[in-house]
Amino acid sequence: MLGGTRFVGRHIVEECLRRGDDVTVLYRGRSPSPFAGISRHVLTDRRAPTIEAAAVLAEPWDAVIDTSARDVDDLRPVLPLLDGIGRYLFVSSCGVYRRTLGRHGLTERAPTIAADVSHPVRASATRKLRCERYLRRRLNRTDVPLLTARLGLVIGRYDDSERLAYWLERALRGGDVLVPMDDRQAIQLIDALDVARFLRDAIDRRRTGVVNVAGARTTAQTLVDTVLTSAGRAVAPCRVGEEFALAHRLQPWTEIPLWLPASSPELALMSVDNSRATDAGLTLRPLADSITDALGWQALRRSWSQRWLDHAREQDLIKRWRG
């Protein structure tokens, strides 16, 4: 396991251990590992592997699962050291697809973005796409089967993106909650538990190629109502609407996560075709179950990013909206 101590990677390791797999975690140590004493750990920078790490990478592996490669520089030092591996599973992102306003049902054959590491939004996806292409070229030479899993928007325990936590925390806090999204805005979420189970199954089933691992499509209204209802607090959603929110210079996604205006090309990423994955065995938990689990985790940590809309400004805007 390359990575494995944070969010999706952590869920994958948990699923592997649950099935009795012998797991080795190769990681940098920036996040404490919850698997210390349970699985073998190798502490190293993958861009400059230690002698121990190089020896471990050269061992025969049934599968290598890579959740931590963010750029080609993360792959170049590692791949030459791998010898005799059964298969390689690379965790990528649906963010590699080209956004076209009004386009629905992005399949694995949809056009990908033009490489642009300077773009403030798409730099990360550009690097992931470069990783995909590099892996295809290198592993094809050695006949190592490759599965590239392009993940949609993932939620669940251990989520360090803080996107869903914004809404979970407001639900747990209670009171008035500003909601700028159009009720019909598309949202597509997948539980990290479902991702982990599918990817672990994909190894046993020898899946290869590219697969979109995304959830079922729902609406902003359904998501917000599910979060607020599941929290069991006295919460009042204030649906101020996009026009009001934009007029008061609220920033979609970067200030209020999961909000995408009707004019945003990013909405294309909320309409990803997951039929290849579901045909291959992907099963999806009900949204309410995922939200309940996430609320339980949020209730324990009670933390969220300070970059989001702060409480004081939120309440001031609600007062203005009410007149």
From TrEMBL:
Record-linked Gene3D superfamilies: NAD(P)-binding Rossmann-like Domain
Residues annotated as domain NAD-dependent epimerase/dehydratase: 2-213
Pfam family, one: Epimerase
Protein name, entry field: NAD-dependent epimerase/dehydratase family protein
